[in-house]
Amino acid sequence: MDATTAPTTAGTSPSTTAALASLRHGLQNGGHFLLPSASDAIFNFPDNDSGSLDDGHFLPNSLARDHGAERPIDSPASVSLIQGVAGQISGMISNHDSKDAPYGLRDAGVQVALQHLRTSFPFEIPCPDPGIIDDNRPVTTPPRLMVDLFMESFLCSFNASFPIFDEAELRRAVDTHYAAEQPVDGSPWALIFTNVVVLGLGLEAQVASVSKSHPKSMHHELMSSFLRNCDRAIANLDSFTRPSIVNIQALLTLALVGREFYKNAVFEKACQTACHLARILGLHRSTPSEGDAQVLEKGDRDRLFRVLYAMDKYRTFLTGYPCDIYLFDSEIQLDDIAEEEPPNTKLNHAFDHIMRIWEEIYLTLYSKRASMAGVKARAQRVSSMADLAMSWAQRYGALMEPTDPGFESKLDPRRLELKYCYHVTQVLILRCGWGNHSQRQMLDHSRACLRVLASIVNMPVTTVGLASLARMLQNYPIASFTELLRFHLHNLGRGGPSDDAANDDIELFRCINRAIKPMQHPDLPQTYLGRLVVGINWLLQVFETVIGTTRKSLNTPDSQIQPMPMSYVNSSNSRPPSHSASTIAMSSGVDGIAHLRSGRGFSQASSISSCSEKEHRRPFGEAELTSFGVATPLTDPMSATVGQGSSSNSSLYLDGPQFDSTVMSDQSWDMDLWKDMFPS
């Protein structure tokens, strides 16, 4: 069908048809997303649709009824997702006396269990902001010995995924900076080299903790000295806001440090400042503007723009705030790459393209404008976005499979991250729908996410593998965890029996929970990862209670349902109080102590790192990465051939490189439009 003669359907008006034709033309000729304008709408979105909802819906979500009321789509920020689970528990408690409530939900023991879960919620109020320590000194240049020691680790574990620097140029910059008789303190390069050392030290500390080779090493003591240098940069961020490429690079490395060692607001502030400088310098344009003081080659400009674009999308979905860089508002084209390009370049290209889909997901499903859409319009959007993600999978599916002969084993963690990114993308889309089919697909993708995490956990402990696992936990919303748990809570609310897959689901939760605990830096519990550990601990407690409740007889009024014991917590491995400046007591049925390092981080209401533990933090015990041998006879969202990969029975979470035919057969609005961009 020709784009310019697209018929007007019941779901589109004549003006909408013109917008679709314009969008199709842009996709066919430019190969990238190009909306008619920032304010044009692709669909007409009425404030209210008269479509009726199916009372027998599979899982309450999006605009579906949740305990008698409709709930809007919540922010994709992790704390909002966890708060959604707490809200669902509150609804179950408040409605237990309703005549429509299942008899089991009115059981006193069930109510005790639910009330305990709700009162133990660890993120009720914003946590206090201890602030950044500012000693009014400039950022000092670290010893070159330390920079040389961790340069390779930085290039392989961080720069390979976020190519902020060309390797040769970075090494030349090191030589130039240290060739000076007195290296300049307070310069962007002093901050960059400090960040290289801090990131390398942190990763080595995690490897030592996870492998238990030396869990009480000196890495953390060394990190404190270098983090003081980062404190100086954060406290005086204005000194790095002069428009220049090197300042953008310094801010991007500081964003990586902020994500690892500070509250989420540091990552957000550094990332947004870098994006602002990039627009001033015109990195979003295809050619530099006249008068640019620093001119980069086109390939370098494109590379740096792609890093900014990807980090901006991660920031958006971790905080729920709008993007700072939009592809439709730039002249950069994410063109196809040659077949002879190395595998790592192909992987980065696949990530670039899925970030474009994240931009569309935010605009069409999570933005303020999207929240005003009615039921029918939202369902149409969900369908089109899910098919767009499937088109991406058809194009890049071979990169996610271990049988590609061009891939080295060291790229396996990055390949698994790409697979995880795809399934998270589908969860972010499908959780906005309310139909049974969409919800079942979402559960399949949620389970696939957890299996990918479990498979990377089972790999031998390496810096590259651990860096990939950290990115998967820190860059992507935890919607797969929360939506899977919400399904089981809904099962309890209906009074139904435990789901057949509940055993496998809870073992996945336990496996991941055990694995991520030793990754937390013991003296930095207020980092995003530290808060995530607390949140997943609470989700696991909810899950164990729900499974224990649904397995008991709900027909006995006097049955007392108690939360299952928190056997996954090993309080004996907690650091003694003398190792930390202050301590926080816990009160969720488990005795233990966790430690808070003062003077580190900002508060941010939209991120998981910004909420108080309300004295419910559990100890950060250390545990080995044990093998994961849980049988997973679940419906997998991958079972029709994609790309050129062949099946592999050794894959933990897949039976092969295939996608579910039921997903592929889903009919939606004029999907030829999207498939033009991602041809099979």
UniProtKB/TrEMBL annotation:
Coiled-coil segments on the chain, per record: none
GO cellular component terms given for this protein: nucleus
Domain of life: Eukaryota
Main localization of the protein described in the UniProt heading: nucleus
UniProt entry keywords in alphabetical sequence: DNA-binding, Nucleus, Transcription, Transcription regulation
Cell compartments where the protein resides: Nucleus
InterPro entries for the chain: AtrR-like, XnlR_reg_dom
Alphabetical GO biological process terms: DNA-templated transcription
Nucleus keyword on record: yes
GO molecular function, one term: DNA binding
Positions of the Xylanolytic transcriptional activator regulatory domain: 153-372
Key word Nucleus present: yes
PANTHER family per record: TRANSCRIPTION FACTOR PDR1 (PTHR46910), ZN(II)2CYS6 TRANSCRIPTION FACTOR (EUROFUNG) (PTHR46910:SF37)
Name this polypeptide is given: Xylanolytic transcriptional activator regulatory domain-containing protein
The species this protein was found in: Xylaria grammica
Organism lineage: Eukaryota, Fungi, Dikarya, Ascomycota, Pezizomycotina
